[in-house]
Amino acid sequence: xxxxxxxxxxxxxxxxxxxxxxxxxxxxxxxxxxxxxxxxxxxxxxxxxxxxxxxxxxxxxxxxxxxxxxxxxxxxxxxxxxxxxxxxxxxxxxxxxxxxxxxxxxxxxxxxxxxxxxxxxxxxxxxxxxxxxxxxxxxxxxxxxxxxxxxxxxxxxxxxxxxxxxxxxxxxxxxxxxxxxxxxxxxxxxxxxxxxxxxxxxxxxxxxxxxxxxxxxxxxxxxxxxxxxxxxxxxxxxxxxxxxxxxxxxxxxxxxxxxxxxxxxxxxxxxxxxxxxxxxxxxxxxxxxxxxxxxxxxxxxxxxxxxxxxxxxxxxxxxxxxxxxxxxxxxxxxxxxxxxxxxxxxxxxxxxxxxxxxxxxxxxxxxxxxxxxxxxx
Length: 377
What we know:
Layout lengths: L1 E2 L10 H13 L9 H21 L6 E4 L2 H14 L6 E5 L4 H12 L3 E5 L9 H7 L4 E5 L13 H11 L2 E5 L18 E5 L10 E5 L25 H16 L1 H22 L3 E3 L10 E6 L4 H10 L2 E2 L15 H5 L4 H4 L2 E5 L6 H19 L2
Parallel strand pairs: 1-11, 3-4, 3-5, 5-6, 6-7
Antiparallel strand pairs: 2-8, 7-8, 9-10, 10-12
Helix pairs in contact: 1-7, 2-7, 3-4, 8-12
C-alpha cells in the first residue's frame, strides 16, 4: 500500500502508540483518583499538557484537552459568541473546515451576522476585505492556518495583527498545521487555536484548544472539575499521553521532515504537470503545506480516479475526509474559482515523512497509466 492521505489521518507515532497501550492496559487509573495508579495517570495528563504547550509556544495552563479539532472549533466559536450580547458579528473565510463553517451557520440562526471572506485563486484570504469587514460589532475572527484541501498557508501573523488592532479576538483552526509547520501562538498573536492529535501521529478522538490567558470562555461541557472546570468528563488518559508524545516527536523532527516532504511534494507536482497532459495544481505553488498536493485531471472524475488508484494499492482522496460522500462539490475549490466540472476532476494527495521517493514515482506511473486508459475510451 502507498498511503497518500495523511491529511485525513496519520499512522500513529510508534512511541506514542507504546505510551497509549501502557495507559490502556498497565495503568488504567482515573487521574482524579488518590491511589498510585491514579496519580501516575494524572502526572501523564499534565506532562502531555506541558508537551503540547511547548510545541506551540504557550503556557500549560492555556491548554485544554478535547476530543479533537471539531470540538475545539465548536467550543471556540460558540463560547466566544455567548460572551457578547451587543457584539454580534463574526468574520471567517469561505474555505474553512466544515467544523467552522457549520458552526457559523448555526450562530447565524441565533441572530449573529457572519461575514465569509473571499480568497484568491491560490486560496489566500483577501486582507483588504478583512479590514473592510471589521466593525464595532465584530467579536471574533476565525481564519484557518493552512487549508485541509489545497494546503495554502495563510499569513496568520499579519491577519492576527489586523484583528488585534480592531479589538476583536482571533481564532485559528490549525488542525493541518500543528506538528507539520512551525506554530507559535505568541509570535503569531493567536488568541485561540484548535488542533487534532490524529493529524500528527496521535490517536483519533483527542485534541486540544489553546485559550490565551485572560480570555475567560464559558465551559463547553458541564460536570466535574476537569480541564480547569471548563470541559468536564474523565480524561482520555491513553490518548492524551499519546498526543503529548506524538507532538514532542513531531516538533523535534519537524525541520528535517519538512525538507524531506517538500522534496517528495515538489517531485510529485513536477512530474504530474510535466508528464500528464490536462493537469493543473490547485492552491499556492510555494506557500503550501509540505505534504499537500491537489491536482485537477481534466475529464477524469475523482471518484473514478480514486477507485482505480485504490485497485493499485494507492490511497488518496477527493478533498476533506469530513466531507466524503457529500453531494455538493468542494466549497474550497469553488471558492478559488474552479467550475463544478473541474472540482469533480480534482484529487488530493497528502504525503508524510514515511513515504519514499519510490512511492512518488510509482504513483506517477500509475496516474499516467490510468489517465491514458480513461482518456482513450
